[in-house]
Amino acid sequence: MLYWLTLLSDGGDFFNLFRYITFRAGGAFLTALVFGFLFGRPLIAVLRRSQGKGQPIRDDGPEGHFVKAGTPTMGGLLIVGALLTSTLLWARLDNPFIWIVLFVTMSFALIGFLDDYAKVKKQSSAGVPGKVRLLIGFAIAATAAIWAAQHHPEALQNQLALPVFKDTLINMGMFFVPFSMIVIVGAANAVNLTDGLDGLAIMPVMIAAGTLGVIAYAVGRVDFTEYLDVHYVPGTGEILIFTAGLFGGGLGFLWYNAPPAAVFMGDTGSLALGGALGAIAVVTKHEIVLAIVGGLFVVEALSVIIQVLYFKRTGKRVFLMAPIHHHYEKKGWAESTIVIRFWIISLILAIIGLATLKVR
């Protein structure tokens, strides 16, 4: 919205700053951060009053989690609110990729909100049935994938770009949409599975979003893509503003989610943020790089899949408990140790993901 202040510029004044994506990204970050600090405590107070007993704690979970009983959930509303406000304020609203990512984020936030509401109302860990969540999620992802393909350059439509391998594209044809659906829904659910300890999910999400924001900015500039030998996707640079808002909103939320958490993100936040990461990867043609940058989420999801399949086949468990962060809790690791070590792993994976831009 503020981009249109450039119409008041003669090319050499303050209003000219609004032409620059980096300036507006800084504005989006600060706006989201201030939003989080301003509305964090009031939102938590409202959630505490309205939810009563807070998020239900699983009976079969780690023993240390029972002290968290009564903590309100749906804290993702704070992140989503900050993200939406900052993006609408600072991004170019004539950019289709901004609307694609916002569409996915807000749609998955709604799914998560309904799931959290059902859990709180029933005081049960069973919310919206998983099959219903998946069906709606795949419909949202299919819409986003078709929408994105329509705005990709003709040479990149329905193509899968491979990192490291220069100028290598795989024509997926009719399989591009199903593949993109798996990327978006998979990312949403992987982040959702990771959100099991105070501060565990939000920092890796912020790291991944920051990394994807840099990638989006790079592939949206023809001079950068020529230097880096990556595929040029005009218009994706604006996504840096979205990710800057996510980073600022994430920091604002982390202020209240740091151990001991005053509020949980809930499915409202985890599904929305995971879906956003998947949508950004599809829009920027960096779906495989997402698997690297978000490798922590991949491992968390795989630990659940492996546990379920192995148990059904043998009646035994591979991990003491899944997702894998609970396995380390059962082994006696302190919650803070698990969280910080997982943050470190996320940062390492982000650096590797960024390195794929130049390694050709």
Protein model, in words:
By secondary structure, this protein is mainly alpha-helical. The chain has one domain. Helices cover 64% and strands 2% of the residues. It contains 13 helices and two strands; from the N terminus they run ααααββααααααααα. The chain has a two-stranded antiparallel sheet with strand order 1-2. β1 (159-161) and β2 form a beta hairpin. α5 (176-194) packs antiparallel against α9 (266-284) and α10 runs antiparallel to α13 (335-355).
List keywords for this structure.
360 residues, mainly alpha, two-stranded antiparallel sheet
Give the distance, in angstroms, between the N- and C-terminal Cα atoms. 38 Å
- The whole-number mean of residue pLDDT values reads 92
Number of self-contained structural domains: 1
Strand content: under 5%
Spans of 5+ residues with little confidence (pLDDT < 50)? none
Number of helices: 13
Topology as a string of helices (H) and strands (E): HHHHEEHHHHHHHHH
Strand line-up across the major sheet: 1-2
How would you concisely characterize the structure shown here?
With 360 residues, this protein is mainly α. 64% of the residues lie in helices and 2% in strands.
Q: How would the blueprint of this fold be written?
A:
Layout: H1 21-51, H2 76-90, H3 96-122, H4 130-151, E1 159-161, E2 169-171, H5 176-194, H6 202-219, H7 222-228, H8 239-257, H9 266-284, H10 287-293, H11 295-314, H12 324-330, H13 335-355
Antiparallel strand pairs: 1-2
Helix pairs in contact: 1-2, 1-8, 2-3, 2-8, 2-9, 3-4, 3-9, 4-5, 4-9, 5-9, 5-11, 6-8, 6-9, 6-13, 9-10, 10-11, 10-13
